[in-house]
Structures are given as structure tokens and as C-alpha cells.
Amino acid sequence: MTHPHPLHLLHPQHPQHPLHGRERELRAIEATLDRARGGRGGALVVAGDAGAGRTALLEAAVRAATPAFRTIGTTGVPGETGVPYAGLHRLLRPLAAETARLPPAHRGALGTIRAGTPSAARLVLYTAVCELLSLAARSGPVLCWADDVQWLDQGSLEVLAFAARRVQDEPVAVLFAARDDRDGGDGGDAGALAGIRRLRLAPLDEEASRRVCLDAVPGGGHTAGTGGGDLAEEIVDLACGRPLAIRELAAALTSGQLSGAAPPPRSLPAGSSLRALYRRRHLRLPAGARRLVLMAVAEEWLGAATMARAARADGIGPADLDAARESGLLRFEGEGVAVRNQLVRSSLWADASREERQDAHALLAEALAQEWQRPRRLWHLAAVAGEPDDRLAGELAEAAATSQRAGRYADSWRAWQRAATLTVEHGVRTDRFLAAAGDAWASGRSRRARAMLRQVRPPECDGTRAARAAVLRGQVEVAAGCPATAVPVLRDAAERLAGSDAEAALDALMWASEAADASGDTHAYLEIADRAASLPPAGGARGELMLAHLGGMAAMVRGRHREAAGRLGAAVRLGADIADPAARVWAALAAFALGDGPRTRALAAEAVASARRLGNAPIESYALLVAGRCEALLGHPPAPIAACHDGLRLARATRLHGHAVEQLATLALTAAFNGDAGAANAHLEPLTGTADRRGLTRAAAFGSWAPACLDLAADRPADAAARLRLPGGAGLAHLPARLFAVPHLVEALVRTGDHEGAAHAYERFRGWTDGIGAAAGTGTAPGRDALSRRCRALLAECDAEAEEHFTEALRLHEAAGAVFDLARTELLFGHRLRRGRRPRAARGHLRAALRIFERYGAAPWTAQARAELRAAGETVAPPPAPPAPPVPGRGSGTGGTRGPAPAPRAAANGFGTLTAQQAHIARMAAEGATNREIAARLLLSPRTIDHHLRNVFTRLGIRSRVELARLIR
């Protein structure tokens, strides 16, 4: 009999039980049920924090199993934890008929449980439950589930676990759901459930949390009054990936919060079950442990020395520390302790009395005795004061300014905020809230920045202050929200600043132009550039750079190439002498527009390093974004992977959603260039939908371009051409991406025989590259000139003309250092020569392409090159077998056995089992680059490069750079 697949009921969009972000867990449940249908049982423990969705997964499993399975279950109840076999008693009730058919010994053992007088021997009882499940499964598969097993009595839990470990040969699936609030991943049930597969529920990621929120919040949580933000985003941030917390927060929203008139919630509602859970845990602690927890809530992270001083001052002993540790409310990190997460922190602080809060602040003010802790000490003293106090506010503002100058934004924004709340005069208070917002933003706390901006109210805010607030609000939206929303905000702010501060107005227009470009609004971009040109002179090199950048980019869009080249060249020259990281990013973009690869890389690397030194997280993220994107389009695949992964980690950690989406798009495109469908699709999956919802047209363009590149790599040129020409395809809504995609479109159209379409597409690209190149001077953009030459070679009707263009393209690729583009051109050249019946000439180019593709691990392109070589009459050796694993303790250069160095274990391509990044570092080292030079190129530290090279030596079985050079040569 064929069973219909039931797991459509588990789909996240099921109308009654939406389960977003639990695909991995649903697949595991599906596999367990499928095995039981086939007569092979199994068991699974679903563990997670309170509110993580364990019960929802069990409910989904029951829905999926019905009606094919017979389902029986039990639930742990706190009041019955001490009652022997209470959980088993509940489980046995539906199985009375099967119990009556058991042998007398087993029937008697279960009968004593049903009668409430358990007296049977343990082994008899345990085997009786196994026989009962086997008997129940004779009429069809059985699903046995147990929820909240942390509250099951010990006897019932041990019986069920015993049975679960013995159902392999029965059509029985056993599912447990256990609360596990410990960082290590093992709850109190771990011993009883040993030997059973444990699946821990991680917090939902931001995208899944948002979908849960959009289901729960009326109207999807979009408001106009949350400081340019999104109510759903505020809820998601507070809920820390707990679906129950999201739903409880959504259910308690007021009409004011929904409309944007009132600020978003700062904690779970008073009637929340999760908040009640945290409150009970806190109240059960000894008095000293409760004070310790509240100190961690107030300070966020307590170092060991501070904790020791506080303990001595308040009589907190080791037993209190142990009790706090066991409560699950704290997490211990090296030499310090912190509250488990923001959800716990906000709940405990909301439930603390005013006296408890003041006691925690006072104790911390005493314990933070070091000079470097002065800003935090003042912050807690101010919290104790409570009432406005200009003297204390002034001291806090001074401490905030000191921290700000040192780049300690995580300290300075809090000090500014507290200083603002203690300040009497409205204007000064507004300035301090603005400073708090700016420093919170610089520290990577976009939610805090928005909260501070909400304190800048129009009655207390003159035009200049309101404009400054709008500029910051717009910057937050560009990186963390929706760039299309930021464009009018920033343009309006620029207008208000134009009469009093031309440089600030120009700065606002620069960020507005970035927002317009990210959202694909070319018309708005040109208007912004024109308005910038009409502003009064800003003065200074930074102002000149911004004007040159905007004017040059606008001129390039309008086809005024000579003007564009002059202005962009000026921006590049100015960028070399300006330390400001944002200005260096804009200079890098200008160099990239000119096709100047070396200056693009140098300026982007300097921008990343400068922002990192300053501690400015959004600018560092922006610099990494630009560095990765430019490097990807310059033809060096490993480098953008390094920059983009670094940028993606930073963007996700700081909730810069726009930057994260753009990094995913660049990673997807880079993987697609290599033909790596698995990696490309893995990056495209979280990108799909998110880019459109946030209006990130540039990212969506890259995300649409990537599948076309995969089609080309898989030798599906017709599919690639269709993708690139469809409305909404690669870059059609974004001008720069549309231009960058032209060489791929030309290749796809030529390979499908549409030479007329290819020639028409190429004209746009040729007008751009030739125009900029002629205006800027020859040799400035060899990479782009090479691609242009490749297009002309593909379009050439005469073989001699094609050979001339291909040969020049190869020379230009080498001059640009675009190794992967070089290999693509070698492959196309070889194909043309073979088709022209010149197989001997073709083989040299195809072999060169094959070597590079193998080095990069580009499997589809390697397969194409091998096929072309075979067609050209060359016998191609099979791909090299993976090398043997390294022998521990040998060949690392850092110790091990003495004697001759082992033979290199590299494959024929010279790189063995190296990762793409290790291979790229190895290649540069073999060419003579120092660790510092490699670090600058890849935007990493020299220490990281040294670490990678040590791993390279170990994997290849060599001990020096000389051996590495010989091996790769």
C-alpha cells in the first residue's frame, strides 16, 4: 500500500500552525515517521529553550501522522513530577484493549500502574511497555510522543526511554520534547535519554522570525512612526529568536504602537508565560544570587574582578554564584558572566522593583573602581540619582566624549543617553540624544540608534537638529532597513542643511545617492548629483571628493565619458590623502568605475582598516561590501569570498540587513562565476524575497545574474540568454549590473546563434568601456578592455579577426591579473580554433584553461575544458584522486619526527585538498608576496595569513616557501 506523503501539513504556510524556519527539524521528523511506515522504528529528542517551538513541532508531527498512524502521548506537568509513573499512567489510558491482550506478568505490571499502586519489578515493567507498543503497532504504525519531559516523573521518563531505544524493528516512532535552557545543550533529562538522537532547536534566524511576526502582527507590523524603522524588526530583535515571545509581544501591541504613535515594546507583556517563567526562576534563587543576576542585567557583562569586588561588598558567596549558574538565567563567558539573552534581561528588569534596580546600580557603581571603568561608574551613579542633575549629566557627557574619541562607542552611547535623561535644558538634551544615537549606530546597534532618535521630538528640536536626526535616520535605513525609504529622508535633510552647513548637506546627499543606487533608482541618483553640484562650496578635500564622485558617476550614466573620467580621476586622487573611511570607500568606487583595479583594491583595503581602527561598525561593513563587490567584478574569485564572508558576519552581528543581503548576492554571484551551483544556491536561498521586500534592486540584480552564470557553466547558453534578457532578469532594473552582465549575455547569445542580438547588446558595453577608456587614457582598465575584446572576438565573422581580438584579450587579462576571466577567454578561444579546424593550436589554450579551472576547483568549467580537449584530439587524464590525509605530527615545520621531509602530497594541480582561500594564499606566497602584502590584498591580518600558510604547509607536506614555489610551478 502506498502512503500519501503527509508532511505538506508541516509546511510553514499551513494555515493553522505556521512553522517558519524549522525546515531542518521537520525533515528529521519526516525521516523518523517514514522509517516507522517502513517497519523500522526510531526515536528523536527535540530539545530547546522555553518558547523555541518544541510543542509546535510535536503537534505538527501528530498532524502529519494522522490518520495513517495511531498516536498516543503524554505531557509532563510540574505538579506531578514527584508522583511515580504519573506520566506513564496518562500514556496507558488509550491502550486498555491492547493491555488486556498482554501476557499475565506484563498485564499485571501495567495494571498496578493503572490502579495507582506501582509495585512491579522495574525490568518487568519496562519490557511490558515495549511489548505493549509492539502489540499496538500490529494494526499499523504508531507515533508515541512525550512533551515537556523535563517535568515527567523520573520513572515514566526512564520507561519511555527504555522502550524508545528498542523499537528499531517495530513500526513505532517515539518523539520527546524537552526544555533545555543550558548553553551546553544538555538538559536535566540527558542521562535518561542517553543514546537517543538529540535535535537542539536553535533560535530562529531573523528572516524566519520576521515571517512569524508578520503572521502575528496586524498589518505585518509596518509603521510609519517608528523612527523610520519597522515595528516587526523591533519585536524580532527583542524576542531573540523565540517564536512564542514574538507571538506574545504581537498579541499585546497597543493601537499606538501599531500606528507608530507609541514606541515599540521594551519587554514581554506582564501576562507573558515566558516572562512569568523567568520571574519564577529568579524568585526561587537565594537573595545573594538574585542580586548577582540583577547586577548582570544592569551591566550586561560582569568581569571576574568586578564580580569579586561586588561579592565582597555585598556578601555574595560561592553558593550564590552556583545557584545563579544553575538557574539558566546567566551564561558564563571566560572570565565574566552575562545575562543569557536580551529577552531574559528585559523581562527581569521589567519585573524588578525600583529599590532592587537602585540597589543593583549602587553596588555596581561601587564595584566599578578602575579608572577605565569611570564612564560606566558614572552611568550607574546617574541611574541611582534618577532625577535631572545637570552637574552629573555634564560629567557623564565628558566621559562619553572621551570614550567617543577613543572609538569606544559601546560605552559612549550609553553615557550620552544617561546624560541626556539627566539634562534639564531642552536643546542640550536633544544634542546628547543625537550623540547617543550616532554612537549607538557607530557601535553597530541600529535598534538602539532608532530608540535614541525617537527621543528627538519636534517641539524640542530646531531645524538643524531635526535635519541631523534625519541624516542619521536615513543612514540607518540605507544599511539596516529599506534604501528607497531613505532617499526622500536624506534629500529633505540635505535641503534643510544646505543654508547652514554645506558639507553636512553634501554628506546627506552622498548617502542618498548610495540609497538610490541600492534601490535601482537612476532618475533619483541623477537628481541628487545635480542638487549636489548646485550647493554652496563645502570647502576641504572631503567636500571636493564627494562632488567629484557624484558628478563623475552622473556624467558616466549620461554618457559624458570625458567629463566622467576627469571627475572620477580627481576623486581617486583626493581619496589617497583623506583618512576618513567613508571618503576612501567613495574613492574606491570611483577607481572601480574607471576600471583601475589596483587603486580600487588599495583604497577599499585602507577604508576597511581605517573603519576597523575607529571602531565604526557600519562604515566597516560598507567598506567590506564595496571591497567584495568590486573584487568579484574584477575577476579574482577567492578575494571577494574572504571580504564578503567577513562583511556578512559583521552585517549579521550588527543587524545591517541591507548589507547582509548585498553580501549574500555577491557571494552567490562569485560562486556562480565558478560554476559552484551548491554554494550559489545556498546564498541565493536566504536572498530570495528579502531583496525585493527591502527594495534592494542592486542585490536582486546580482541574485538574478547568478543563475545565468550557472547556466553558462553547465553549458546551457539558451537558458542563460533567456534569463539575461527577461524583464526583471540580470540587472535590467539596475544600470551598472546590466552593463557588467553584457559579456555573459554576448557569450550566451553567440553560442545560441543569435549574433544580431549579441551585437546589439555589445554596443551598450562598448560605448561605456571605450568612452571611459579613451577619456581616461589607455591602459587604465585592462580588465574591462579584455572583456570588450573577448566580445568582439566572439562576434567576429573572420577567424583571423577573432584570433587578433582573443590574443589581445588574453594579454589584457594578464595585465589586469584577472586569472579566472583569462581561463574563460582561453576556453572560448580554444573552442573557436577547434571549430575552425585548428585543433593543434586549440589544445594549448584549452590546456591553459584547464589548469586554471582545476586550481580554482571550478568543476563545471573543468568539465567543459576537458570535453573541448578531447574533441581537439588530446587524451585527457582523469581527474586526480584526492590525496591521502596528512600524517599527524609530520611535515608541519613546527615539530614532529626528524628525518627527510615527506614527499609533497599535492594533486596534479598543485593544491591537493586546499580550500579556495588557502589555494589563493598559497599562489601569492609562491609568487613571492610577503604575509603583509597578502594580508593587504585579502583584507585580513598578517597573523591570519601566517595561520593559513601553516595549514597549507601541513596539508601539502612541505616545510618552506621554496618547496611551495617548486610545487606550484
UniProtKB/TrEMBL annotation:
SUPFAM superfamilies: C-terminal effector domain of the bipartite response regulators, P-loop containing nucleoside triphosphate hydrolases
Any matching Pfam family: GerE
Residues covered by region (Disordered): 1-20, 873-905
Keyword Transport listed: no
Keyword Nucleotide-binding: yes
Pro residues bias spans: 877-888
Name of the protein in question: LuxR family transcriptional regulator
